[in-house]
Amino acid sequence: MTTPGNTKSHGTLGWILDEHILRLPHTLRALVLSADGLRIFTSQDAEPDMADRLAANVSGMQALSREAAEFADCKGGPWEMTMIKYGSGFLFIMAAGAGTYLAVSASKDADAEAVSYAMEKTIDRLGQEMNVAARDSTDRPS
After folding, report:
1. CA 111, CA 24: separation in Å to the nearest integer?
2. How do residues 21-59 score in pLDDT, each as one tens digit?
3. Residue/partner pairs of 108-116 with CB below 8 Å, 24 or more apart
4. Is residue 35 within 8 Å of 141, Cβ to Cβ?
5. Residue 8: is its pLDDT beyond 80?
6. Positive or negative torsion for Cα 13, 30, 41, 121
7. What's the CA gap between 121 and 139, in Å, rounded?
8. Residue 35 confidence (pLDDT)
């Protein structure tokens, strides 16, 4: 188990991702990233190079998802979450606070509702640890 003192490459708060996300069956990796696509910290199983590439990709996906809101008659409303289902798994992206996002990967056998609920609880916990307000529907990049 990773502890707050054992940061390695996954950052000082990566242990929260390990305890709150990776404990769920069929979850693979978790990543907290900035809106500009930089890795902030990861779960223990996320390789740094992969996490850096994913952070850049997720930032772009979030921006595209936000712009597609008009199609769902949600233009002007806050973006909260994007879920992509692949043939053998999922990618979840959720607003985590001012200018930050939480991304989680899971296999096809994961319970999508349980993963998204755990992500919300994890974001609350991260907000406590970082002294940052958890996601607010008014916080969104322009």
Report:
1. 9
2. 999 999 999 999 999 999 999 999 899 999 999 999 999
3. 108/26, 109/25, 109/26, 110/24, 110/25, 110/26, 110/27, 111/24, 111/25, 111/26, 112/83, 114/24, 115/21, 115/24, 115/27, 115/90, 116/81, 116/83, 116/92
4. yes
5. no
6. negative
7. 18
8. 92
